[in-house]
Write a structure and sequence with these properties.
Chain lengths: 382, 382
């Protein structure tokens, strides 16, 4: 498979302040974005791709340069997080579609977030950054696309938190979204997921180096707490059988235990430490808090009175994909959405892919998602 | 149901040093214990009950007085942790059996552990406490019982880590154990469980107040990290449907979200904070680390070459109970043990109770465990 080639994250400043659900507004919002493929003359081939909690605008291709603000180190020169799905001949075929990917509002990879400078003070926002919602993320994406001269989307697609954004798009802008691709996502995080997210945030906020969120420029940041948050996240993204297949109970040292409390004994322990260390190098703790809170708040039934009332607004064709082993965003939630849409007489496809890698399947099971997504976008099975 | 009445935790000092798997030995081991019922003249009615990670010797009845060493505050005047199972007419019927319960080696509730004074230095052991194993716990229990004049046990029983001790007893002292009751336990923690335990330990050890384990007497202890460790543990002890039934996505404030990052919004978030706060008041962080490590190390197949080789030694009748919704100690492990014992021609019963509360079922599903345990102990269905 070829990639879209070397790409560069670009930046666009919104001309107007962005109003937010919490009642505040953000001045001077910058959006980091990438695009792949060619915009059709009548602008009818645009697909917006929305990323999940720890993603960024670099969804496909090979990153050319590090982005500027909000990160403590540059991008690795690496493939985009959904490169297997976006490119020539891939699920989101860039020979056909103009794919746009932005870093979400509140992010730390180029879009305005808590690590950005507050124009009112000249200092990073930190904990003074307004609390944002998935609807705010969509509002930001909408305002950004308007600057590109794009008012209508052929499709919005995303996994996990990205799928929430796709649903929100279809509800908030029904006549401007042709289709949504909602993968490993839900209309409301289930209570155990609420708990995992709360634990991750607790871990960050209990780290004294978090300093109430005002750690920028202090030379200290809550790496210890962020590391534990990432470990928790990581295990919830994998399935128990997937972990067993990958690591089993293999010891680091081979056959013998070393009788140590503080050093990793099992391979999975070492893996967790590695994951934590690499995450804290590239991600901002406050962005983690804000984004985790936004996905926890997301609740279509609460916002609209009922799931029926929320989905009644949808005009987009809907594709739902979930994975049998995903216990964080279980297939049941997709089925609920599908059932309600069907009951409302709206076009929906619901696919449950039998795969062992848990929530991470949406990033891994490219081969099996590709024909489903391609056919759906081409309206072959709708 | 009546209780065994007001009980007092007692203490016994072992006369000999205790050799350990790691090659070191512990001098001056004290054991905290309680007993319920009456020892038969020929001492043939003794059941040893073994507790899980966060338990203590106070298994039944109403605690009379707080224990002395190793805890930062006394026991609450409260029922024992398995009071529903131990008492007159209960599963472990104290009209029939003499039930003995000890705080495990490495504990913080009266038995020698990392918060105890090292006789060699006059200071608390802290991280100089030797790394212990489940076999060491059993060695300590064996030495303790010898001091009571008890060499043979009618049964050893426990849930979770307590069940591991029961299995270890049957393997290490086959001719001195008549029966074992192994509830919600396993012959080796599954890899996801290894990961959860590692995350909990990381959370404690990354707390700067842990101070490399030398926090005693400093006025600071790793409460923040311990709190997160307990939150992680708590969610793994419950099932996702159980959490959903108990909390759903109910907000603290009723109908409205308050747009706050740092305060609990959902009831389950508040519950987690409460659980964390109450746990750190009663439990020592180093004991958590050592005990978590011991249960992670437990691996009968690794220790004996194979599960068959390990269980070949067992002479005790074996009762296994697991719970359908327990994803930390899933029924599959009990089934494996049962299959191997059956294949070896040894007497075993395996019961899977269909119940929604996850691993915590072993503490909650008393009514359904009671007839199974009673009949097994009376050899009615063996």
């Amino acid at each position: 498979m070829t990639t879209v080639g070397v790409v560069k994250t670009r930046f666009l400043d919104l001309p107007e302040p962005l109003p937010l659900d919490c009642g505040r507004e953000l001045r001077s919002v910058r959006v980091a974005y990438e695009t792949y493929g060619t915009l059709a003359p009548d602008r009818d081939n645009v697909i917006l791709v929305c990323h999940a909690l720890s993603g960024d605008a670099h969804a496909a291709g090979i990153a050319a340069v590090p982005p500027q603000e909000g990160t403590r180190e540059g991008f690795e020169k690496s493939l985009g997080w959904w490169d297997g799905m976006i490119g020539p001949g891939k699920a989101f075929d860039t020979d056909r579609w103009f794919v746009v990917s932005t870093n979400l509002l509140g992010g730390c990879r180029g879009t305005t977030g808590p690590s950005s400078i507050d124009p009112a003070t000249g200092e990073p926002y930190g904990p003074d950054f307004p609390v944002i919602t998935v609807a705010d993320m969509v509002r930001c994406e909408r305002a950004f696309l308007a600057q590109l001269g794009i008012d209508r989307l052929a499709a919005v697609a995303g996994g996990s938190l990205g799928g929430m954004q796709a649903l929100q798009w279809a509800i908030d802008h029904p006549s401007d979204v042709g289709a949504i691709v909602v993968i490993a996502s839900t209309h409301a995080l289930q209570p155990q997921g609420v708990a995992w997210n709360a634990i991750a945030r607790e871990s960050i906020q209990r780290d004294p180096d978090w300093q109430g969120g005002r750690y920028y420029g202090t030379g200290r940041s809550p790496d210890a707490g962020m590391g534990v948050a990432r470990m928790v996240g990581h295990i919830t993204y994998l399935s128990a059988p997937g972990l067993a297949a990958k690591f089993g109970r293999r010891l680091q040292s081979g056959a013998d235990i070393r009788y140590t409390i503080s050093e990793p004994e099992y391979e999975v322990e070492n893996y967790l430490r590695h994951q934590a260390a690499s995450f804290v190098r590239r991600f901002d703790a406050n962005t983690y808090l804000y984004t985790s809170r936004a996905l926890t708040y997301f609740d279509l039934a609460r916002d609209h009175g009922s799931l029926e009332a929320a989905l009644e607004k949808v005009q987009a064709r809907t594709l739902l994909i979930s994975f049998s082993s995903d216990w964080l965003y279980p297939p049941a939630a997709s089925r609920e959405i599908a059932d309600v849409l069907t009951g409302l007489g709206k076009p929906v496809q619901n696919h449950v892919i039998d795969a062992p890698y848990g929530h991470d399947c949406f990033l891994l099971e490219e081969a099996r998602q590709t024909p489903i997504v391609r056919d759906f976008l081409e309206e072959k099975n709708s």
